[in-house]
Design goal:
Strand content: 25-35%
CATH class of the largest domain: Alpha Beta
CATH topology of the largest domain: Spore Coat Polysaccharide Biosynthesis Protein SpsA, Chain A
Shape: elongated
Mean pLDDT: 92
Structural class: alpha/beta
Number of domains: 2
Distance between the termini: 41 Å
CATH superfamily of the largest domain: Spore Coat Polysaccharide Biosynthesis Protein SpsA, Chain A
Low-confidence stretches: none
Largest sheet: 7 strands, mixed
Length: about 350
Amino acid sequence: MKAMILAAGFGTRLWPLTIGRTKPAIPFLNRPLIAYTIDYLRRFGFEDIIINLHHEPDSVREQIGDGSRFGVKITYSVEEPEILGTAGALDHVRDQLDHETFIAINGKIITDIDLNAAINTHRQLAALATLVLRPNPKRERFSDVIITPEGRIEKFAGFPAPGTPPSSPIPAPHPPSPLMFTGIHILDPKVFDYIPRGIASDSVKDVYPKAMAAGEIVAAHVAEGSWFEMSTIERYLNISMEFLTREGHQSTPGLILDEGCEIESGAQVERSILWKRVRVRAGARLSECIVGDSVTVPADANFQRAVIVRADLAGESERPEKALPGKIIGENLVVHFG
């Protein structure tokens, strides 16, 4: 079986971290985020992987290469001039995927969900597509997925309201909560009958509703296991700090430091992520900050809950619509969050 990692998005809510790189190329514990997805797929026997690219494609290619150092074979699908969406991305490489069941997975997640169990559900239900779901007990802003008692997707709804009861019957032992989509699809090649040729399209909005209306089975696999998704600056920071503690990576307590970083005597840095070659001058104070490559934090500067990148990297590019506002302070662009 082949797998496709969806990595073409702009990552606008992570701006300015996505200046010069796509979201899956952002470092997580000093490794590219997409490397964790590759490792996950390899653990379940997927060694032939396609990665689609659009925004800053070289930021992935330069870090991942042909995949050999990860024990896999990587093929790239570059979408030009326009991004194609989740279904359009599959259409772009349908000649490589139309022979057997395959996996499509979002490139911005870290998970240990049992993929074999999801594939078994897909086969048992003879589904066109099986979407891996999980309970959303905190009722975070992920679309509610409504399923039938037989385990089929009924519809995709809006965000769950705080404290509302679940909209779907959830199999034991899962607690009562809304269900959300994890970004993992198991797909039969027949799905290409419902994907338009040569245009941008979205699986959830365009393909699955059309297939369900035609009587096809779009199944739900409600999974256990951990799942982390880094689509916002705050989630990126919080999840990084959680992994720093639980995975025993605390060489410097509360800090993630990449190569070439220097924190001068008298500077205070806590619960922060410093990318490559960051220099924090004496007297500076950082708390819950993310500092991009080659940034110098001036002496006596004081930043809390901020992303700091070099202003010259932003150039003349405009702030994306969904991005938080930023301010030029000296040689740096600073974006406060939370």
